[in-house]
Structure formats: structure tokens, C-alpha cells
Specification:
Residues 67-229 form the Alpha/beta hydrolase fold-5 domain. InterPro entries: AB_hydrolase_5 (IPR029059), AB_hydrolase_fold (IPR029058). Pfam families: Abhydrolase_5 (PF12695). The chain is of the alpha/beta class. The protein folds into two domains: 1-30; 33-243, Rossmann fold (3-Layer(aba) Sandwich), CATH 3.40.50.1820. Helix content is 35%, strand content 19%. It contains seven helices and eight strands. It has helices spanning 2-28, 35-39, 82-90, 112-118, 132-143, 182-188, 225-243; strands spanning 47-52, 55-60, 66-71, 94-98, 124-130, 150-154, 168-174, 197-201. It has an eight-stranded mixed beta sheet with strand order 1-2-4-3-5-6-7-8, with helices on both faces. Helix 6 links the parallel strand 7 (168-174) and strand 8. Helix 3 crosses helix 7 (225-243). The radius of gyration is 19 Å and the shape is globular. It starts with a helix and ends with a helix.
């Protein structure tokens, strides 16, 4: 009996070690922010950037009641989305760029909750995300529809049924996106709110919503990351300012 227990313990330990090693190898295949993203972490004359343990905040100098909580894509260093957040904040959107455990939003789906509850100046909250982050943002929206005005999906789709909510939704993806599963996108499209706005960025791909280089298996964009992010910000600003009333 003792020998059997020893064998089981050894198998258990080996299994744990293999799982840890597998996780490390998986995460090593991630994406780091580039120099453009690092520069976007500096405050400007119009945006105050504040780094906190669980998020980076982009606060407009002008008074605003509209905020966006943003979940990063899977295995992407979260601050790779700093340029997009800067773009939005310059136009008056208070942005919370969330840091996820192991760079995977699936491990902290409810990260938005504390910011919604404690940031008293913001009365019009939106949640959004890129790729896996968008899917998890949609899951949060499904669970907390009354706390939000709407949902922003970048290269992402929702597997949650949001069709019976009062949420507004903007879904954006690039014409050269080879990462987002188009079959799944069309399959779950009917689960989005009826008033969902869909925008396709011509020449854009999956990777360029952030600033972390070209993602493996993605299509090659024919526009620059700056142009793709500017177009994304333009559509998002229009969406949030129109829908907040």
C-alpha cells in the first residue's frame, strides 16, 4: 500500500511539473510591446498616464463622463495597446488598460468591476478588448449588462447571447485578419445586440490593433499600425459619444 501511495505521489508531482513547464513554454510564445507602445506610456499635454499594479490609466485633461475598460489579446503584453488608448484619451475617453494574469484575460474576467465601482467621475462605461480579450469583455458584459453602455470588439466575437440586452456594440476587424475565426464570427453574429455596428478596416490585420509586431499566421497589412489604430479610435469615439446619450 505504501509503495502504491509513493507511485501515485510521484505521478502527481511529475504531472504538476509537466503542467508548469508546458505553461512556461506556451507563454514564451507571447508578444511584447514595441518602442512605439513604450513611448505611448508617457504623459502628454492632453493625457495623464498613470501606471498601477493592475492597470495603466489614460486620463484626459478635459473633464469626461465616458470611460473604456480594455482587455488585451491573449499572450500579448497588455501595454502594447497604449498607443490606441492614448488616441482615445486624447479625444476625451478615460481609458483603463487592464493587466491580465499571464497575459490571458480568461484568468480575470471580472477585472472591470473594481474600476466601475470606484471611479465615481465616470457614468458612461464601455468595455472592450482585442481577440481573446474581446471575448472575455463580452462575457463580462453578459454578466453585468446594467453596469455598461456598450461593448467594443476588436478582431473578436462574442459567444455570449447579448441579443436581448440594451447594450450597444461596435465590432471592428481588419480585412487582412487571418487570426479571427470567420466561421465563428458568422456563427455567433446573431448573438450580438440588434443595433451592432460592424466596421471593416481595409488593409488592416489582426495584430495592428496593438503595437507588438506581426502575430504568427496573421495576414500582412497594407496599412500602417498607426493608420489602423487611428481609424479604430475614430470609429470608437463616434460610437461612444453617440451612444452615451
Amino acid at each position: 500500500m505504501k509503495n502504491k501511495n509513493k507511485i501515485f505521489k510521484r505521478i502527481f508531482v511529475v504531472g504538476i511539473v509537466c503542467a508548469i513547464l508546458g505553461c512556461i513554454l506556451y507563454l514564451q510564445d507571447g508578444y511584447s510591446m514595441d518602442s512605439v507602445a513604450k513611448n505611448a506610456l508617457n504623459s502628454t499635454s492632453t493625457v495623464i498616464v498613470k501606471e498601477e499594479p493592475s492597470a495603466t490609466l489614460f486620463q484626459p485633461n478635459q473633464k469626461t463622463e465616458t470611460g473604456l475598460i480594455f482587455y488585451p489579446g491573449g499572450k500579448v503584453e497588455y501595454q502594447a495597446y497604449a498607443p490606441l488608448m492614448q488616441d482615445l484619451a486624447e479625444k476625451g475617453i478615460y481609458c483603463v488598460l487592464v493587466k491580465m494574469p499571464l497575459n490571458l484575460a480568461v484568468f480575470d474576467i471580472n477585472a472591470a468591476e473594481s474600476y466601475i465601482q470606484t471611479t465615481k467621475d465616470i457614468s458612461n462605461w464601455y468595455i472592450g478588448g482585442h481577440s481573446l480579450g474581446g471575448a472575455m469583455a463580452a462575457k463580462y458584459a453578459d454578466q453585468h449588462p446594467h453596469d455598461l453602455k456598450g461593448l467594443l470588439l476588436l478582431g473578436a466575437y462574442s459567444t455570449q447571447d447579448l441579443s436581448d440586452t440594451n447594450l450597444s456594440c461596435l465590432a471592428i476587424y481588419g480585412s487582412h485578419d487571418h487570426i479571427m475565426n470567420r466561421n465563428h464570427w458568422h456563427k455567433y453574429r446573431h448573438d450580438l445586440p440588434e443595433n451592432t455596428i460592424i466596421k471593416i478596416i481595409k488593409g488592416g490585420n489582426h495584430s495592428q490593433f496593438g503595437s507588438y509586431g506581426l502575430q504568427k499566421n496573421d495576414g500582412k497589412a497594407t496599412i500602417s499600425p498607426v493608420k489602423q489604430q487611428h481609424e479604430t479610435a475614430k470609429e470608437a469615439i463616434k460610437f461612444m459619444y453617440i451612444k452615451k446619450h
